[in-house]
Amino acid sequence: MSTLSPDQIPEGWSQIAEVYERAFEPVTAQLATEALRLLKLQKGERVLDVATGTGTFALAAARAGGEVLATDFAEGMVTRLRQRIAQQGVNNIDTAIMNGQALSAADASFDISASIVGVIFFPDIVKGVTELRRVLKPGGRCAVVCWGRPEEFEMMRYLRQAVETVKPDFEFPSETPVWARMSGEQALTQTMGQAGFARIEVSTMRGVLPVQSPQIFWNDFTASAPPLAQLFKKLGQENTAKAGEIFARLVIENSSKENPEIAAEACVAIGYV
Predict the structure, then answer these.
(1) Helix %, strand %, coil % for the chain, to 5?
(2) How much is the pTM?
């Protein structure tokens, strides 16, 4: 059995749910909105959101009239979503802790299934997408979102540049990051096909993460995913603070608007049953 990455272990995500929400929801909400637009959700349709995280897509689908089941393997993520459901008074979302590679859901029981930058973390991505297809009724639709070309992911590019400026000899992990194993339209199309979808439509969009305060964002970013926590622990507190100053400067210098922002290319696939 291969060794799992820190971002493939539920406990790591459970501990950082609210930080992840603050850091990334401003951009994942854009991805969820685009996926919902393409899915053409009809009121009353049954929707399964896999690897829901803190529920960005699930909440949006519920507001659009879907009957939603939101699942995640991390108890802390599901707990946070339940808090948000109560705070927002949403009554058409159920939640469950569930392994996305072996869903506890019947065949052909949902009209829509989705995973917004979630299934990309699974040890077996094809198995996860195959499960998303298995639960769909005839005529059902599935949305899978992954990131685009890694070299266009400004956040990670600024991170690497900042760290290397502070500590030129710092050794980044040599293996491909878990989130980048399936990236770009070609890889996403291939995966959807391997999972059994015959009709697939894939498009690329530009997500924008507004960063009102790059330094405050950095403080959340350093703890927003299990591998990042490990990386900055290795870098050390002093060097992490210095890297944060450089990161903030890069964000400001490379933003064309008055308000700083970070761009992220994402690919959205819709598979039809």
Answers:
(1) 50, 20, 30
(2) 0.93
The answer to whether residue 1 is domain-embedded is no
Q: How far apart are the first and last CA of the chain?
A: 33
CA-based torsion, 237, 121, 115, 262: positive or negative = positive
Rounded Cα distance between 259 and 175, Å, is 34
**Could you tell me if residue 118 is inside a domain?**
yes
Query: Which residue range forms the structural domain that includes residue 121?
Result: 6-272
Q: How far apart are CA 38 and CA 32, in angstroms?
A: 10
Residue pLDDT, tens place only, 174-230: 888 999 999 999 999 999 999 999 999 999 999 999 998 888 999 999 999 998 988
State the CATH number of the domain containing residue 168: 3.40.50.150
Query: Side by side, which strands form the sheet with 261-272?
Result: 93-97, 67-72, 46-50, 110-116, 136-147, 261-272, 199-210
